[in-house]
Amino acid sequence: MPERENENENENDAASTSEAASSSSTSTTSEVMNLFGKYEVGKLLGYGAFAKVYHARNVRTGQSVAIKAVSKQKVLKGGFTAHVKREISIMRRLHHPHIVKLFEVLATKTKIYFVMEFAKGGELFAKIARGRFSEDLSRRYFQQLISAVGYCHSRGVFHRDLKPENLLLDENWDLKVSDFGLSAVKDQIRPDGLLHTLCGTPAYVAPEILAKKGYDGAKVDVWSCGVILFVLNAGYLPFNDPNLMVMYRKIYNGEFRCPKWTTPDLRRFISRLLDTNPDTRITVDEIVRDPWFSKGHKEIKLLNDDVFDFKDDEDSNSKSLNAFDLISFSSGFDLSGLFGDPEISGERFMSEETPEKIIERIGEMAEAENLTVTKKDWKAKLEGQNGNFVVFVEVYRLTESLVIVQIQKRDRETGTSLDIWNDKLRPQLDDLVYQQPEASVSGN
Question: 3-state class of 408 per DSSP?
Fold first, then answer.
């Protein structure tokens, strides 16, 4: 994380740049903001309800990046804190050639900055607005889209807002999926196995979302992909009407008509994507085997170095830290302090003890203080004070001999409950903390 003494200066610069951008009818600004001494921020690329995206340059490497500046005040006021935290959490674990990379997250008192891969080609939407694509070009972009979407689904991530405006193009005119602000993860699935949050852009939303009965995140993404493919081929939306309720009725009933130039194979394929019954709608696995899709398709082989292990905790009794996890432990990716939640605090330390012994020790200490202990693999949850005091402990493997112990504390009441941790439990862990050997100094 950059040094904090530059924070006020950076905030003033950011504010002046934002004001200049807002007043500019050409969506550009001649002013250049220096962010933490790491990035020179220039032209405004776009903006939304609580964020603005700028083109920037890494001062050290000269690399072009996109920086999304998110207003904390607007996020808090609009109740979007969980959305922003989820977007960071999701983007930091997706590493795919057709997904926009998140390099780092920086924060000041008033803003959060997403430093992301810069897609020089802009939005796919702008290209479609000039006219429909050929069938071969439509297929090429659809293959890249499905490669990214299938990758997300395999890692338990569902985008839920796929549309041409969220599909960017790089300098080679290859597709990059962006904007995971409305994404969902497996943790949000209810006991019925479905998601229930109403979200998405009206023209691209699946009929089962309109039914408000719960939906499968993977299936609604496939529907949106079908709408995108239709737009690529036709140059217009399959479901559209000035009256929103009429458009929703068309979506719910699957009322669309392919243009006359659509080939029979593509017409059949689109009908399977835009099947109003999610149970019979084509799946990603079936998509990649379809004759229309597979024509000229080259499967992307991801190297082990490019894919991080994101198995659910149920599937693995060991949790080793990979390179990106280590980055996430740095302040730049520490999500707990982004919004200054006064109820949550945390700490971490390294230890040479085994994860099992650490969890066992913490459990015994907590039970001696009449706390309720729930343990699972390398995790423990401690509860007391009628639910006002909660401590989460998780152990990660760092090397063969070292682990990191991460502790998160939630204290909903001021008073003595945190003293249980600070005065009674934490001191008993001192002997577990790894002491780095002092460097020996030799004289001449």
Answer: strand
CA distances from 76 to 63, 68, 111, 115, 344 (A): 32, 17, 11, 21, 16
Give yes or no: residues 175 and 44 share one domain.
no
For the chain, the average pLDDT equals 75
Q: Which residues are catalytic?
A: 161
The structural domain count of the chain equals: 3
Strands 379-384 and 389-397: antiparallel
Share of the chain above pLDDT 90, in %: 28
Quick: pLDDT tens for 427-437: 888 888 877 55
- Work out the average pLDDT over 175-198: 51
User: What whole-number distance in Å separates Cα of residue 224 and Cα of residue 229?
Assistant: 9
What is the reported pTM?
0.62
d(Cα 205, Cα 276) in Å, to the nearest integer? 11
Strand partners, 112: 70, 107
Per-residue pLDDT, 345:
58
Do 109 and 131 fall within a single domain? no
Instruction: Please name which of 2, 39, 204, 177 lies closest in space to residue 100, comparing C-alpha atoms.
Output: 177
**In 10 A of CB 213, how many CB atoms?**
10
| Residues annotated within a binding site | 68
Judged on CB neighbours under 10 Å (0-12, 13-18, 19+), 62 is exposed
Distance (Å, whole) CA 297 – CA 335: 39
pLDDT digits (tens, 9 = 90+) for 282-325: 999 999 999 999 998 877 766 443 333 333 333 333 454 444 34
Domain containing 78: what range? 4-117
Mark whether 51 and 167 lie in a shared domain. no
Q: Given the structure tokens 């200049």, which residue do they identify? A: 20
Give the start-end residues of each E strand in 90-174: 102-107, 111-117, 122-123, 157-158, 167-169
* 91 within domain boundaries: yes
Burial code (b: 16+ CB inside 10 Å, e: under 16) for 359-396 equals bebbbebbeeeebebebebbbbbbbbbeebbbbbbbbb
Binding site as annotated, residues for ATP = 68
Query: Bigger pLDDT: 83 or 131?
Result: 131
Do 264 and 137 share a domain, yes or no? yes
Residues 238, 179 share a domain = yes
pLDDT digits (tens, 9 = 90+) for 370-421: 888 998 888 888 888 776 778 888 887 766 777 888 887 765 544 455 577 7
Helices (H) and strands (E) in the chain, counts: 14, 16
